[in-house]
Design goal:
This protein is an alpha/beta fold. The protein is built from 13 helices and six strands. The chain has two domains: 166 residues, Vaccinia Virus protein VP39 (Rossmann fold), CATH 3.40.50; 105 residues, no CATH class. Strands 3-2-1-4-5-6 form a six-stranded mixed sheet.
Length: 307
């Protein structure tokens, strides 16, 4: 029997698109979260709840043998993620259009196409850091990042609650996360670096997976409607970035309600951790965007405000 809680007035901050727009549109054509984290953290054959987004995480987990339910509050994302799982081609979303626009300025900071190709083809982190420091990490780059990732610019593109959740020194944080990534992960086999810096598709598309269940719903509302012990694993993306505390509490209650004892929860945030977190796998995420990639058991869910 499904659980039907009292209706709450607190809604997800993602009810409105995170990108400032006058009409509904596809926000993400790709997923910028390294699903290798989930593959490592989740037990084989888990019943997984995940945020649908562009559908990449759902497809990769499904191909690995997990039983996946992918949920998203935006109909455009659910329809797109379902079509990708059925073998339809990739489409460009608002995030990809922004990245394509940003790439036009690479030449102004000294990032020629040759330099980018050479850097992306490296596979030794020691060599990568040396190349980064010598050829790519210039004062022009840091100045450009400070400008384009400033709050005044970001507020023209993203909704206010989302921008307010970002670190004040967001440009410096992203700069440090990039260097951390180059120092740990070989570029040549890092599809997320290739996607962001060249736009190339380095992830081999998965075969059609009609077994994934796609649902258009708010994450907390859906989990509240599920029976107890419905899932062994949760991939929550960064849906709590910009969320009010009341919604975070509601989502945590819903996850605990729908989880089996010992369930694993993976959640991300663009924020910086307030203190050292042993459960923070951010440096293992090859996409380099995240300050927090919290991998925790259900019993520790409330111990981290970003999960």
């Amino acid at each position: 029997m499904s659980h039907t809680p009292e209706v709450e007035t607190v809604v997800t901050p993602w009810q409105e698109p995170v990108f400032r727009t006058l009409a509904p549109q596809l926000m993400f054509g790709r997923t910028y979260e390294d699903s290798a984290i989930e593959l490592k953290a989740f037990a084989p054959g888990s019943r997984v709840f995940c945020i649908a987004g562009a559908g990449c995480t759902a497809r990769i987990l499904g191909a690995a043998g997990h039983l996946v339910t992918a949920v998203d509050i935006h109909p455009e994302q659910v329809a797109y993620a379902r079509s990708r799982a059925l073998g339809e081609p990739e489409r460009v979303g608002a995030a990809e259009r922004l990245l394509s626009y940003a790439r036009k300025f690479f030449g102004l900071v000294g990032w020629t196409e040759r330099r980018r190709c050479e850097f992306l083809q490296l596979n030794d982190p020691i060599v990568q850091i040396a190349y980064w420091d010598r050829f790519l990490d210039s004062r022009r780059l840091r100045a450009a990042m400070s400008t384009f990732l400033s709050r005044s610019i970001l507020q023209r593109v993203y909704n206010r609650p989302f921008v307010d959740s970002l670190p004040r020194n967001f440009a410096a944080c992203i700069h440090a996360r990039m260097r951390r990534c180059w120092a740990r992960h070989p570029n040549e086999s890092n599809p997320y670096a290739w996607n962001i810096f060249s736009g190339e598709r380095q992830i081999v598309p998965n075969p059609p997976l009609s077994s994934i269940q796609f649902v258009c719903a708010d994450a907390a509302s859906y989990l509240e409607s599920c029976g107890p012990a419905s899932f062994e694993a949760f991939s929550l993306s960064n849906i709590l970035d910009g969320a009010p505390a009341a919604y975070a509490e509601r989502l945590h209650r819903a996850v605990r309600h729908a989880a089996v004892p010992g369930a694993v929860v993976v959640s991300r945030s663009l924020a910086e951790p307030a203190s050292v977190m042993k459960s923070n796998w951010a440096e293992r995420d090859r996409s380099f965007l995240w300050g927090i990639v919290n991998v925790t058991c259900i019993g520790d869910l409330s111990s981290c405000g970003s999960c």
